[in-house]
Amino acid sequence: MNIGFIGFGTMGQPMVEHLLKAGHNLRVWSRRAASADSLVGQGALRCESPAALAAASEIVCTNVTGSADVETLAAQLAEGLAPGSIHVDFSTIAPGAARRVAAMYAARGIEFVDAPVSGGGAGARNATLSIMWGGKSALAPRLEPLFSVLGKTVVRIGDAGAGQVAKACNQMVMVAAIEACAEAARLAGAAGVDFSLVRQAMLGGSAGSRVLDVFGGRMASGDFAAGVEARLHHKDYALLMDEATRIGVPLPVSAAVWQQLNALMAQGWGTRDTASLLRVLELAAGRSTE
Amino acid sequence: MNVGFIGLGLMGRPMALHLEKAGHTLHLWARRPESLAPFAAVNAKTYATPALLAANADVVITMVADAPDVEKVCLGADGLAAGGKPGLIVVDMSTINPNAARSIGLRLGEKGIAFVDAPVSGGEMGAINAALTIMVGGTPEAFEKVKPLFEKMGKSVTLIGGSGAGQVAKACNQILTGVGVMAVAEAFNFATQSGVDAAKVREALLGGFAYSKVLENHGQRMLDRNFKPGFKAWMHQKDLRIVMEEAHRMGLMLPSAAATAQVFNAIVGSGMGENDSITALQLLEKMSTKPE
Q1: Which residue among A135, A159, A183 closes a domain?
Q2: Structural domains in chain B (count)
Q3: Looking at chain A, which residue has its C-alpha nearest residue B245?
Q4: Do residues B115 and B197 share a domain?
Q5: What is the band of A289 on the pLDDT scale with cuts at 50, 70, 90?
Q6: What is the pLDDT of residues B166-190, one digit of tens each?
Q7: Of A101, A167, B50, B165, which residue is the least packed, with the fewest Cβ within 10 Å?
């Protein structure tokens, strides 16, 4: 299949490599040409512009940072995409922005799929991402050869925007669990108890979870180097809390977690791991592990 | 003075009429022409666009819903910037994001138009009685020129600082009133559920350290079960959204405001948004009693 791809960060880079290995023809474009060099070396074709990339692709994938980036790119891609072609956006953006982009494309007969992912850099490298997508169900057979190469769990949630709603739910559940781990680690630490043993015991019981395993492990060993940069979770909270305000849904726990993330950002820890939420609690108690 | 006024709703209409009564000539534009009806009998000129209005005014006051509306009236096609002469002062009395206010001010400044943000507190009654609290951000020069207008609409007029500072003060006001209304609602619900007369609690507390205007006024309205606005809950939700957006942008921890904002989300989501914000008490009651 002829696939275009834009956005080669921690996630995008290994995703393109998997698609190349699966035998797809990849076209790439990037604002800074150098960031596509290694992929071009592996066989991807470099394009002059998003529109040129779009004109040669049946499916264009994007994986960028914010709603505004996706909307700007979509306007450029629309110049090149043929009716019937698909833009698959893997970024995490506002559900409302995803719906706007879909409506803009619909007027031109172009399909839009929001397909945010969960699983982080490791999930992208191991092709074990969880992909939650929103778009017409009739598109599923055309997306399957793409998604099956990138992820392990692929679920169509609903129409355009539904994937982003699912991602918002994912972030809420995950970061609230990280905060819960941080609070447990803080309580254990303050009580003079070894959290690594507490974690070990909990992992075997009803409180066991992937977050306790991974993020709890980082907290236990005091490793706050980024697995997931906290600033990205912080950004996602602005999206999901805004959506909650728009539709009038109370999210009391998420709102409290959001404030802990704000405090984390104020300390300049945005490029550290979200396990740094433990350090926010220590800060409030006048202690620090570093 | 030739005063333009855009946004003739619950607040804007009485504010504009106070200025007319004080001898100023009103220049009006409204998105919905029926908003102009109450001005048929007074000294007011009406225009087809904000740009045409701006060409005939020394000062233009806007009192609209949110930042995109202010932006459109000021900088959109046929907006104030398209018609205003250099030296025009635009005074926005809406409640909008401080950062948005600063940005609008900068862009109007490029056209030689001064921008003053002057959000108000006091609600519809404050507007009708010319008793508003007006919090102003802008240059001292622009403030001095428009101060006589503020004094016809409000009782307390304060220059807080530069562009955006008025909106910061209003955001602080909404944190205090939002969290304050919640605190009074929680205290009253606590008293009632404990089998204690909330009216007696209020009476006692008014004499002590917990005294506040919210306890006095909003508290009385809660006891009277008078949930008519006042200040509508959905507007408080909007204002808290602004507060939380700014907290996010700056990395500020606002745990109480964040929790309060969720209660307002619940109020709006359950269809109580048109009530006064003291309807928070009804939500707490619903959550703390079994359905019949």
Answers
A1: A159
A2: 2
A3: A238
A4: no
A5: low
A6: 999 999 999 999 999 999 999 999 9
A7: B165
Each residue's pLDDT tens digit, B39-89: 999 989 999 999 999 999 999 999 998 999 999 999 999 999 999 999 999
Distance CA A146, CA B239 (A): 44
Residues B223 and B100 in one domain: no
Same domain as A180, residue A128:
no
Q: Which domain holds residue A142?
A: 2-159
CA distance A268 to chain B (A): 9
Residues B183 and B128 in one domain: no
The mean pLDDT of chain A is 94
Q: Assign B210 a pLDDT band (cuts: 50, 70, 90).
A: very high
**Of the given ranges (A31-35, A141-145, A158-162, A241-245), which has the lowest mean pLDDT?**
A31-35
Residue B82 is part of which domain span? 2-160
A231 and A265 Cβ atoms separated by less than 8 Å: yes
The CA distance from A191 to the nearest CA of chain B, in Å, is 25
Distance from the A53 Cα atom to the nearest Cα atom in chain B, whole angstroms: 34
Number of domains observed in the structure of chain A: 2
Active site residue B170: yes
Residue A290 lies in a domain: no
Residues from chain B that touch A242, judged by Cβ atoms under 8 A, are 241, 245
Closest Cα in chain A, distance from residue B264 (Å): 8
Q: Model confidence at A65, in pLDDT bands (50, 70, 90)?
A: confident
Length of chain B: 292
Q: Select the residue of A237, A247, A255 nearest B259 (Cβ to Cβ).
A: A255
pLDDT at A120: 87
From chain B residues 226-265, the ones with a CB under 8 A of any chain A CB are 237, 241, 244-245, 247-248, 250-255, 258-259, 261-263, 265
pLDDT at B253 over 80: yes
B257: left (phi over 0), alpha (psi -120 to 50) or beta: alpha
Same domain, A19 and A141: yes
A219 and A125 housed in the same domain = no
Check B269 against A238: CB less than 8 A apart: no
- Looking at B170, B200, B238, B286, which residue is catalytic? B170
ipTM comes to 0.79
Residues A7 and A98 in one domain: yes
From residue A83, how far is each of A91, A133, A138, B51, B165 by CA, in Å? 23, 21, 15, 41, 49
Bridge-based pairing state of the strands B120-121 and B132-137 = antiparallel
Q: Which residue has the tokens 């404990």?
A: B194
Nearest beta carbon to residue A262 from set B253, B263, B266: B253
Here the tokens at position B186 are 């929680």
Q: Which of A113, A143, A159 is the last residue in one of the domains? A: A159
> Which positions in chain A touch B263 (Cβ < 8 Å)?
250
Tell me the average pLDDT across A127-141.
97
DSSP per-residue letters across B85-120: PTT-EEEE-S---HHHHHHHHHHHHTTT-EEEE--E
Spell out which residues of chain A touch residue B241, defining contact as CB-CB under 8 Å: 242, 245
